[in-house]
Amino acid sequence: MEDASFLAQDNQRCTHLIELAFTHSPCLRLRASAVTLHTWQCLLVRSVLPFHWRRYGRMRLPGNEASVPFFLGAPYGPFLGFVRGVASPCSAPPPRLSLSRACLVTLLSLTSLCFLNMAAAGEDQFPFQGLLPKKETGAASFLSRYPEYDGRGVLLAVLDTGVDPGAPGMQITTDGKPKIIDIIDTTGSGDVNTSTVVESKDGEIIGLSGRTLKIPTDWINPTGKYHIGLKNGYDFYPKALKERIQKERKEKLWDPVHRLVLAEACRKQDEFEAAHSSPSQESKLMKEELQTQVELLNSFEKKYNDPGPVYDCLVWHDGETWRACIDSNESSGDFSACTVLRNYKEAQEYGSFGTSEMLNYSVNIYDDGNLLSIVTSGGAHGTHVASIAAGHFPDDPERNGVAPGAQILAIKIGDTRLSTMETGTGLIRAMIEAIKYKCDLVNYSYGEATHWPNSGRICEVINEAVWKHNVIYVSSAGNNGPCLSTVGCPGGTTSSVIGVGAYVSPEMMVAEYSLREKLPANQYTWSSRGPSTDGALGVSISAPGGAIASVPNWTLRGTQLMNGTSMSSPNACGGIALVLSGLKANDVRYTVHSVRRALENTAVKVENIHVFAQGHGIIQVDKAYDYLIQNSSFANTIGFTVTVGNNRGIYLRDPVHVAAPSDHGVGIEPFFPENTENPDRISLQLHLALTSNASWVQCPTHLELMNQCRHINIRVDPRGLREGVHYTEVCGYEISMPTAGPLFRVPVTVVIPTRTEEISHSDLKFTDVHFKPGQIQRHFIEVPSGATWAEVTVCSSSSDVTAKFVLHAVQLVKQKAYRSHEFYKFSSIPEKGSVTEAFPVLGGKTIEFCIARWWASLSDVSIDYTISFHGIVCTASQLNIHASEGIVRFDVQSTLRYEDIAPCINLKSWVQTLRPLSAKIKPLGSRDVLPNNRQLYEMILTYNFHQPKSGEVTPSCPLLCELLYESEFDSQLWIIFDQNKKQMGSGDAYPHQYSMKLEKGDYTIRLQIRHEQNSELDRIKDLPFIVSHRLSSALSLDIYENHSYALLGKKKANSMSLPPKHSQPFFVASLPDDKVPKGASPGCYLAGSLTLSKTELGKKAGQSAAKRQGKFKKDIISVHYHLIPSPIKNKNGSKEKEKESEKEKDAKEEFAEALRDLKIQWMTKLDTSDIYNELKEAFPSHLPLYVARLHQLDSEKERMKRLPEIIEAANTVISHIDLTALAIYLAMKTDPRPDAATIKKYLTTAVNNLMIDFDVKMQAGKVVQSKPYPPPFRREITKYSLFYNEMEKQKSTLVDALCRKGSALSDQLLQLQAQEGAVSSDTETKDDSQESSLDALTETFWETTKWTDLFDTKVLPFAYKHALVNKMYGRGLKFATKLAEEKPTKENLKNCIQLMKFLGWTHCASFTENWLPVMYPPDYCVF
Fold first, then answer.
1. Do the beta carbons of residue 156 and residue 177 sit within 8 Å?
2. pLDDT grade, residue 1235 (50/70/90)?
């Protein structure tokens, strides 16, 4: 029997072990309220011990003491680690412990349970770590070592689409500070002009929307003055939100009411038709009225277009600070329920536009209240990026971003007007703010292809922030791989920027993408690769390129999966924030140079990933921090500029560059941090060892470097290198600290291309090529001279796998972005299937063709593929045809093989060139001042153009086109307005992205260009601008095989087979004058393309533009057809030349008539009847006199008082027209033939042009006649022409008089109805005068319908008023709507709204009223 005291002691030991297990073991997650020793012992006896003995063999348990050797495997380690004296599995020999039997039972029970629990956890526990990766970068281990170095004290600027302050994780930091210190929109897309100042009266003001705005009594405004503005919500709503809200508003606000109204209108129509089987003339009008109502309602449904919410904005000063309030209730005008906000930085305040929208917003107020900036997120991208870098979830730390303690400066640089495209304005303002706020870090997950790297105004400002203000700038490398040299700007092309590639780990594959299999770590297929075109490595480091992280509330989701280098950049940036947090906490001085060196020298390279993809490797936060702690010498704080001529590295790619060894002069110069003391500059003396691990590179062994640029010579000998790409670096080490890694690197890249053999007909074949997921095959090929396109055919030889492949090809041309000569295609190849693609190439240069298995495409696959080159060369790379030349020649040659050719020219658009009407230069506001008070200026150029008919247009500025980061100007932005100043669209450097449809009318373009020097702006104040009008159908130019055929218009060219090295001339005839588009004139040109190949693949390549090439889209052989003046056609059958001698007038008669016409002309401009009375006596039968009198009366300001006189004047005009003769002339109007109108038009045109056509034929030799038309024939033509024109004038005059008379009668009746109390006055109370007027109106109406259509532009006002008088509001609305389309004035639209209300269609009226402030803004919107 056991001693009681010993049992008590043993029980205590067991209990202690259990408590320790629960407290420290991460494997046991049990939280039982009470666990007794007996429970554990029972569990041990019944299940655990048998398992344990089976697992570990024999165990001796003599008496109460057990002496056993412990050697427990890895699953037991986490549990036993707290037991003192228990050796780790690596220790030897194992110790001997003395434990009581009960203790041992308890220990073994807990250990075994721990093992079982871990096994279960492996199956059930969710891999949270893979959702927002931190382990791969060493961030997790760094935080476990230094939990307080979690980004505290670090300010990170996120330059993106904006950050939602209400999104999860965006509220506070780990130490309780505001997560977002300020939110700024630098694009201008949320700007509201609030320069209009008003004072409230009785607590109310009238907003710019026309609404009455009620001012809450608790608002403090000592001056009583308010700045008012107006903003359409859809101008700053994200695209996805706009689409959702449009759908919701239609379903909730429009559809239910509209269905009810439409059903009622249909019911009334059916009832009327049933009751009036034989309708009278009056009943016919009522039937038409009901039909019109149904038609209108159906039309409104089809044309439904929600203008969106329009917000009145108020700004005022409360005596202490500026405040703003936005009428988020949209139409109530009651501000008591709206949120009053200060600038976000003052108190981190924000509001929301509604429970449906969930769009959070903040404000900033500039220019003494004259400008309000409404800041919203333009997309989900920016919030997601911020969450990766620094999101903080106090209650759910597993969701934290990489640096949860860091604060954020949220800067919106994605312009909502441009679908969140970045602009120079947004970027330069953003850098001004980053410098002002003294940011430590900038994350920029944007970028574009650039024509030349490391230059341009934007890059200069970025460099200034980095070099002079110690701001570490981290940017995405781009998503345009897998070909080399596809890094974007600024991430992969700017020296001061750390470019980050995108890496995917096995854990990410499982957690984020739910792949069935765990694949090896890899770089994403689309991650851009270096080197930069100037030889720099391009990608600096890599980081995980995917995450499931927070997104804005308006998305109606908490988190979202996104991937891209946009995600790898904030992951790396957050990691750098951890490093800076630790350095700041320990007062360790750092510079942008030392941090970058630490990141690159400690990054871990992943096997089987090329250096151009991963750069120096995956960022390692913990190692980078240790590096900076250990290497704090002055030499490590400075940077080094490496130059190879105008480049930053050695990059040999084209065949001519690798044919022989080459020497390269390399400049190496120290770059000191700003404010470095002069003694430090003087004392710099570095003893450098230079090394290279490549035998084909020769360099000096040592370099003595001081504060001076030193030059060395590097020889590259590519002879003997195998085909493909080769990379090495010449590294410079300080001999006193070799373990610190290189201080600088000179990158060297050599590409050895494959040459095609002539005997293979320029074909390259690859058979049975095995691809694993994510595997890439690169082929660098010397394109045969004369080749113009390549065809690639890929065939799958696997019978059970559908494989996803990327086909990518890039050729580099100096000072041209890679996208200028890029082909990209994502293809899914079925089992045993194939795909064939074609793309253009440049002969004699190296092309990289990359075939890549998609990184997430599972299972291995084998394929065969063939690359073949073809060549059809035109003598001109661009065909310029001037219409005056008549016939233009071009030659075509087949360069490589037999080719089937069929030349074809298609003209797809006409291009209009504009010159500015005005140019205004002025300094910008407080947001646009660079450090040291360097003021930025803007120039606004104004252009006007006419759109002859509805169609698509593409505006652009050729001088600045396709230039953004590399531009020498800060930015360009153009906005198109209609004649009412409504914004129709906008665009910037990449015009092909911003095409828009415009209706017929006049338009204004305002172009803003910005620069620091106003003299540079003044130099381009006459800058041309072009508008490309897309043709509704392409025009073709006729092509002939010889000049004679082209001259005579005979036998157009057919397709033919052209042997190798043979050429064939072709001749292009001019475009017939009647084919020239309406509106196109001299100075304009038609634009299109020339295709040469007959095959579909050849045609496809000839007009190829990569799917991702939108910003650089172009035809391979472009054609410009320059227009000349149109032929001169004499009007009225050469009336001036063929006056009949018997009717010739003497000078006195001509003078009298000229004096009469002059007086008539001036009569309408003078408010007097004297001239009319005088001329009436002298010319009692002169019709134009009475017409002018009618117009004079009908256009006076007091028209409504002179309605009887107008009616009388109209009757006088009508009485002077022979209606019978006019009716006989217009008999064709009742021609029953369906093509009567066409016949009339044809005959009229034929007569008008008969003589000039005849003369043209004579000159061409097609008519043999010794003299022109005989005089009698000419006289007959002239007589007919004069008669025709006279009749047409009389018809026009008659219709005009009838309409003016009818409008005057209608206005009389409408006045009488208004005087009687309402529009719905009872017909029984009408007096004789009203009945007489109504009869006259009815007679005039039916008379008008005899002579013209009611929808004629001149007739519409009368038809509209006639319908109003008869209370036929449906017909009235139809005419009013047509009027508003013809003349889109605010008054015409208000008439439509009034009629909608009369009809009871309040939902239509409400939506149309919302359009008023959108369609008729008070002024042009601000830039």
1. no
2. low
